[in-house]
């Protein structure tokens, strides 16, 4: 795999660089020691009882430095480093084609959706001026519909950054019916953070009052959060000194960061929006699949019309799990992706093909056919549709 060869070449460069650096330090220290010894001998010449010939000392130093050969040693290590670095850059130029425009196909875009994706991306990030600029330039003012909603989300997050949880808690109360079970978890998480903040910076009595008011509903015998609330109650014994207590884990800033992430997720869910920006995910998936697309573009260079008319890639594009949002079936025979018209079908031998492949193999709804992956035979009637 080309990426592995690039990685190996890079690691060789790193190894040579470390060796070169180590060799340089060693030579410099050796030269330093010889010079220090010569200086010590010269300074001792100030003692009249032990006169020293400075010229002979310098001549001896010159001989020692010549024997060390610092220039030759440094040139040798640097030469090896430069040789590997040159090979690495050539490999990059040969392997990573900088002209990514080859993977581009002249297809029709829905510019309304593209403008919406870009504007919503900026609104989601809190960059409202940039989002407004995109919409003004596109001449589609109706796309600002989500601006006010994301503005509310960022107001809640900004308040949480200064440890003000009241706006977020008010938002949860106002939307409790629409939020799912995770919304209840988030409410408990925010109340826990507020309780710990009071315990750290307020009094034990105030923290106890807050717990009785806001945490007690989560501590009922039937509540799945009962143990978590009981653990929080143990913190009351260490008011003002949680950092040095068995409950010091509760003081980690990561709890606040996770609460902000959960709030963002719940807010986006309520807006029927994904947690991650669709534009960011699309760009990231494109970057990951770009090497495969460039290879395919080079292969199809002589078939431009076929490349432009292609509706489905003839090769799989391997993407990470973060880009997999639902199950996808690709028929191992036809390489077609499963759809409503061409669903995956389970054969009696437990192998799975798409419906069209089964129909082609059987040539008749009553005729049996052999599985392409095992000796078993089956008929169309014996095959069952799979649902993901």
TrEMBL record:
<keyword id="KW-0479">Metal-binding</keyword>
<protein>
    <submittedName>
        <fullName>Putative transcription factor C2H2 family</fullName>
    </submittedName>
</protein>
<dbReference type="InterPro" id="IPR024964">
    <property type="entry name" value="CTLH/CRA"/>
</dbReference>
<dbReference type="Pfam" id="PF10607">
    <property type="entry name" value="CTLH"/>
</dbReference>
<dbReference type="GO" id="GO:0008270">
    <property type="term" value="F:zinc ion binding"/>
</dbReference>
<keyword id="KW-0863">Zinc-finger</keyword>
<feature type="domain" description="CTLH">
    <location>
        <begin position="149"/>
        <end position="206"/>
    </location>
</feature>
<dbReference type="InterPro" id="IPR001841">
    <property type="entry name" value="Znf_RING"/>
</dbReference>
<dbReference type="InterPro" id="IPR013144">
    <property type="entry name" value="CRA_dom"/>
</dbReference>
<dbReference type="InterPro" id="IPR045098">
    <property type="entry name" value="Fyv10_fam"/>
</dbReference>
<keyword id="KW-0963">Cytoplasm</keyword>
<dbReference type="InterPro" id="IPR006595">
    <property type="entry name" value="CTLH_C"/>
</dbReference>
<dbReference type="InterPro" id="IPR037683">
    <property type="entry name" value="Rmd5_dRing"/>
</dbReference>
<dbReference type="GO" id="GO:0005737">
    <property type="term" value="C:cytoplasm"/>
</dbReference>
<dbReference type="GO" id="GO:0005634">
    <property type="term" value="C:nucleus"/>
</dbReference>
<dbReference type="InterPro" id="IPR027370">
    <property type="entry name" value="Znf-RING_euk"/>
</dbReference>
<dbReference type="InterPro" id="IPR044063">
    <property type="entry name" value="ZF_RING_GID"/>
</dbReference>
<dbReference type="InterPro" id="IPR013083">
    <property type="entry name" value="Znf_RING/FYVE/PHD"/>
</dbReference>
<dbReference type="GO" id="GO:0034657">
    <property type="term" value="C:GID complex"/>
</dbReference>
<dbReference type="Pfam" id="PF13445">
    <property type="entry name" value="zf-RING_UBOX"/>
</dbReference>
<dbReference type="GO" id="GO:0043161">
    <property type="term" value="P:proteasome-mediated ubiquitin-dependent protein catabolic process"/>
</dbReference>
<dbReference type="GO" id="GO:0061630">
    <property type="term" value="F:ubiquitin protein ligase activity"/>
</dbReference>
<feature type="zinc finger region" description="RING-Gid-type">
    <location>
        <begin position="331"/>
        <end position="374"/>
    </location>
</feature>
<feature type="domain" description="RING-Gid-type">
    <location>
        <begin position="331"/>
        <end position="374"/>
    </location>
</feature>
<keyword id="KW-0862">Zinc</keyword>
